[in-house]
Every structure is written in C-alpha cells, then in structure tokens.
Amino acid sequence: MDDFLSDGAELFATSCVADYAAAYPWWEAVLGAKPSFDATPTESVWEVAPHRWIVLEQRPERAGNATHTLFVQDLDARVAAISARGVEPSDHETYGDVRKVIYRDPEGNELGFGGNGG
Asked: Rounded to an integer, what distance in angstroms lies between the CA atom of residue 113 and that of residue 53?
C-alpha cells in the first residue's frame, strides 16, 4: 500500500451549503448527535469513525454538490433511528445484496447509508 494511504491520514468529507444555520439542524438529525467540534461559526465536524470525519461548511459557491456514503453494520436500525428524528430517506438503491438508503439535505447534498442484506 502506498505510504500516503497507510501513514495515518485523516479523511474529512465536506458538504458545502449556502445557509449553514438552515442546514445544520438537518445534519444533526441525520447524524444523530451534536458535532464533535465546531471549526468556525459556520463549519461543524462530526467524527463518524476513527480518523473519518463529515464536515458541514458554509461555502455558497460550492453548495449542494456533495455525495457521501457510509457503510454501516445495521442499516435498518440506522434508518429507523433517523426516521425517529424526523428525517425520511429521499431514495433507495439495491446492488445485489447491498442496499443503500439516500438522504438529501435541503441544498441537495447527498448522504447515503449502505449495508448488506434485505
């Protein structure tokens, strides 16, 4: 493996929005927690796994173009928990025995959760 990939690099996957204050509640509901930290007044960061971060950042010129997928152990439980927080999926996809449930924030950024079975 290339040293770049094995040297402990951190991954920050960013979703840009035009209106941080309007987008933030949606992201908190889908991710199910307050951010791990706020980098600036208009940038929040959630650690979704060790060394893997989802970032919400106000950058109007790049808003609405992100696509991220997190593969989770229990997709059905994850979807049920998100629904209980008032957010429903935008779409579903199936690839053989892998399912993906897609959520889109109000600006069009996509956050998908994938899992086996179903």
From this structure: 15
Residue ranges of domains in the chain: 3-116
Alpha helices in 19-111 (DSSP H): 20-31, 75-84
Instruction: Please name the helix (run of DSSP H) or strand (run of DSSP E) that holds residue 54, with its range, or none.
Output: strand 52-58
Q: 98 burial class (0-12, 13-18, 19+ CB within 10 angstroms)?
A: middle
**Side chain identity at 44, as an amino acid letter?**
S
Averaged over successive runs of 10 residues, the pLDDT of the chain (118 residues) comes to 68 97 97 98 97 97 96 95 98 94 97 85
Quick one: DSSP state of residue 95? E
Instruction: Provide the CATH number for the domain formed by 3-116 in this structure.
Output: 3.10.180.10
**What percentage of the chain's residues is helix, strand, coil (to nearest 5)?**
25, 40, 35
